[in-house]
Predict the 3D structure of the following.
Amino acid sequence: MTGGMLALAGICAAYVLLFLCRCLLGWGNKACAGEEMPGIGIAQTTGSRQVQADVAQTWRNSAGTMAVLADGIGSANTGAVCAQIAADTILDRFEPYYELNDPLYFLKSAFLEASRRIQRTVGERRGGASVGAVFLNHRYLYYAVAGDVRVALLRGDEVIPLSRGQTLDVLAAQAYEDGRISRQDALWSAEEKRIWNYLGRDGFCEIEVCEEPVLLKQGDKVLLISRGIFEELSWSEIEDILIENAPPGELASRIVDEADGRNDAQADNGSVILIQRLEA
C-alpha cells in the first residue's frame, strides 16, 4: 500500500471513530442513522455496494434543525471519507449557533468550506460528495444541494419535489429555458444523468439553493433522499408511504425496505432523512 493510501486509510479510520463517538455518546442534539430524535427519522441501505458511502445526520439547537445527507463519490473508502468530511463541516459550523439570520449565506459558505476540505484531504485521488442540506427554523425551510441529492416536502397527501439536482439533463433543461441551446439539444441530453457539480470537484461552482424560503405548516414532512432511493422508487410510491400515520423513523425504514425489495443488482447506497414539523 502506498503512503498516500495509508494516509487516506488513517483519515478514514479517524472519521469513523469520531462519527461513532458522536453517535454513541450523544454529543449535543445530534441524530445519526438508526437513532431516534423527536420528529426525525433516518434510515439507510448499502444497496448492492460493499461500502456505505452515504452519511445522513442531523443537528438540532436553539436556531433550528439542520439535516445533511452526503453521498460519497470515489473508490474504496474515499467516498465514505468525503461524505463524512462534508457532513462534519456543515454540522460543526452550525452547532454553536443560537440564531441563524442568513441561512442561505451559511449554506453557501459551509458547502464551499466542505469542498475545500475534501480537496485537501484526498489530494490527487478522485473523490467528492453529492450533498443535500436543509435548515428548518420555527417558520421556514431552506435547502441547498450540490450534485444529486433530492429534497422534497409532503404537504397533506402530496409530495412536492423542491430540488432539481445538478446533473447534465437538468443543466440542459435550464440552458434551453434561458435560450442558450436548441430544443433538440435539450432533448438529446434528457437521459444524461451524470453529475456536473459536487463537493471536492476541481472547479466546484455555485450550488442549488431555494429561491425563496418555504413557509412551513403543521404536519409538513421534509424529505432528503439519495440515489439508492430515488432511482428505485417513484415520487408516487414514496408518497404512498409518507401519507401513513406513523413515526418518522418507521416511515424512513419503510422507504428503505421498499427500495431494497426491488432487488436491483446495480442499486446504489440509499439514505433517507425524514423530518416532521409538529409545532403549530
User: Anything to note?
Assistant: The chain has eight helices and twelve strands. The first helix runs from residue 3 to 25.
